[in-house]
Amino acid sequence: MIHPFLIDTKTLEQNLGRADLVVIDVRGKAAYAFGGHIPGAVHATWHEFSDPGATAKGLLDPNVANLEQKLRILGISNESDVVIYSNPFDNWGDEGRMFWMLQYLGHSKLKILDGGWVKWVAEQRRFEHGAVSPKPGRFKVVPNPDVIVMKEELKKLVKRPHPETAIVDARSLEEYAGKEMQGIPRPGHIPTAISVPWTGFLNPDATLKDLDAIKTSLEEKGLHESHEVVCYCTGGVRSAWLYFVLRVAGYPKVRNYPGSWWEWSRDFAAPVETDVKLLHKIIGQEEARPS
Q: How far is residue 255 CA from its own chain's centroid?
């Protein structure tokens, strides 16, 4: 049985054309415009909902009226069934970011297309070209604070023991260990954070792996369903995908930090740790691989 947060390609195709269904394509504009898209799908990316005045690109626009208007233009109402898809092998977890953002803004009827555009094309399902202009929706934002964490709260959390809360870093192991990244003032990770790279949860056909296997891998990392889990990455996108995976795996208390490392590394009052031994080990392994 498929998870309530997922929809398979066959079921979605059978439901295309329903007045209360909104399908959102979160791939790049060129892929949507020239490569074809699922019939009736509208286009939007997470960037369009970011705070235009913030250096940290992942922070949401604080102007709720702007967010409402952009979502209404997509045809979204609070009662709409929303399906989100991308090319899961050619992005940073963008479908998870849209899913998390809509949950935070108060939408409850959300699904991600299992396998996304990869599986849709492989099965030779119908598609179309050109922009879609739906009838405007009536979405009303009702923020859900249970799925978001902001910098100041997280700073307070890491200053005390927090056995009830697990902080997870969805970036690569190299970034976690302290690899220098262009545009990032300080490398490293948030103290006590567990490395859970956002990759590795998909099958070759881009569908989500077996849930029991996912749960086992998470538990091996030290994550248990009793924990509140806080996810972060560089800009709250990869971590939002991890947020989605955790929710599908049955973790009831998960939050995403949208500012993530873009914001955290710029605040020199925010503590940072590196793991030099781990980084040297990773670099050594990469250099040892045959070219």
A: 11
Instruction: Say how far apart CA 105 and CA 147 lie, in whole Å.
Output: 10
d(CA 127, CA 21): 16
Helix (H) or strand (E) holding 194: strand 194-195
Let me know how long the chain is: 291
Q: What is the tens place of the pLDDT at every residue in 170-182?
A: 999 999 999 999 8
Q: How far apart are CA 115 and CA 240, in angstroms?
A: 17
Domains and CATH numbers, the chain: 6-143 (3.40.250.10), 148-288 (3.40.250.10)
Q: Supply 10's token pair.
A: 């066959």
Q: How many CA atoms lie within 13 A of 252 on its CB side?
A: 2
**Contacts (Cβ under 8 Å, ≥6 apart) of 145:** none
Q: What is the per-residue pLDDT across 254-286, written as a single tens digit (0 to 9) for each?
A: 999 999 999 999 999 999 999 989 998 888 776
- What kind and span of H or E run contains 176? helix 173-177
Whole-model pTM? 0.95
CA distance 175 to 193: 12
Say how far apart CA 119 and CA 114 lie, in whole Å.
8
Burial class (CB in 10 A: 0-12, 13-18, 19+), 192: middle
Helix (H, G, I), strand (E, B) or coil at 249: coil
* Longest Cα separation, the chain: 57
Question: Which of 13, 9, 20 lies closest to 82 in space, CA to CA?
Answer: 20
Calpha distance 142→68 (Å, rounded): 10
| Rounded Cα gap, residues 207 and 8, in angstroms | 9
